[in-house]
Amino acid sequence: IAAAADAWARGAAALPKPWQPQKPVLPVEGMRNVLITSALPYVNNVPHLGNIIGCVLSADTFARYCRLRNWNTLYVCGTDEYGTATETKAVEEGLTPQEICNKYNAIHADIYRWFNISFDYFGRTTTPYQTTIAQDIFQRLLARGFLLQDTVEQLRCENCQRFLADRFVEGTCPFCSFEEARGDQCDKCGKLINAVELKNPQCKLCRGVPVVKPTQHLFLDLPKLEERLEPWLEQSWATGDWTANARYITRSWIRDGLKPRCITRDLKWGTPVPLDGFRDKVFYVWFDAPIGYLSITANYTDQWERWWKNPQQ
User: pLDDT tens across 161-185, in order?
Assistant: First the structure.
């Protein structure tokens, strides 16, 4: 308190000169380098105050604080643009998925500018860098034996000649009998649903009745990672600032045993899967979207690896 009072009494003239980072902002040897990301907002709607308060504003406040401390700071964000929700919105508005993304990316960017959010760069996930980096990570997983293939029972609309991703199916919830449940979740009881469990399923595109058919998919073999993940978690819990909720959820996953997780979808709109037998599929958005933080940084600077592969700084 005494130090703060003394600094206040000496006035702004006694403060160190503000750090002016180079453009693009890159890590600097000997400085504290801080990379800040906001959760990527999904592109299929107009952002509202809750979205801004929920993730953007807190990160923006921290970015401003870091800059005031003269820390070398890079703050990036962007719209998350792949997945079934974009395709669904495109059908609703009579546009292509790319047109929907272009429309709502511009709306998002304008709103954040109006709120004076201090992003160093606001990008998007539908870029060549996203494809390159996501496919590279996929190939590394494949080469190291962390992927497996399995057959999945999935709803197929013979009228539309396509397998239906979760959000292209509606029906009656098997748990609470709500008649407008989606193929991934019931909005009434909140339970997660496997689309084939829906009663009276309907294709959202043509209102036809889909049939259950087998289809091949790729899975991330998470059980293979458990032995390496547990000691890393113990160390990270001991040295990091995990919230109680984050610790509890993570412990419950480890306690119950990790399960293989499907990383592909029978969709057109997404990052293509670069593997024979699966080239008509795309990556599931929850495999693809987190890679957006890397690809957005890569669109900001071709030296993006200095931020993401530089633990010493």
Answer: 888 877 789 999 999 999 989 888 8
pTM, full prediction? 0.86
For residue 223, the Cα-to-chain-centroid distance in whole angstroms is 22
Q: Is 258 within a domain?
A: no
Say whether both 87 and 178 belong to one domain.
no
Q: Give me the pLDDT at residue 145, please.
A: 96
Flag whether 198 is in a domain: yes
* 78/74 Cα distance (integer angstroms): 14
Helix axes 292-300 and 128-143, enclosed angle (nearest 10): 130
Neighbouring-strand partners of residue 78: 123
Q: Which residue has the tokens 């180079």?
A: 22
Q: What is the DSSP string of 21-75?
A: --SS----TTS-EEEEEPPPPBTTS---HHHIIIIIHHHHHHHHHHHHTT-EEEE
Q: What is the largest CA-CA distance in the chain?
A: 76
Query: Please, are residues 190 and 151 in contact by the beta-carbon 8 Å criterion?
Result: no
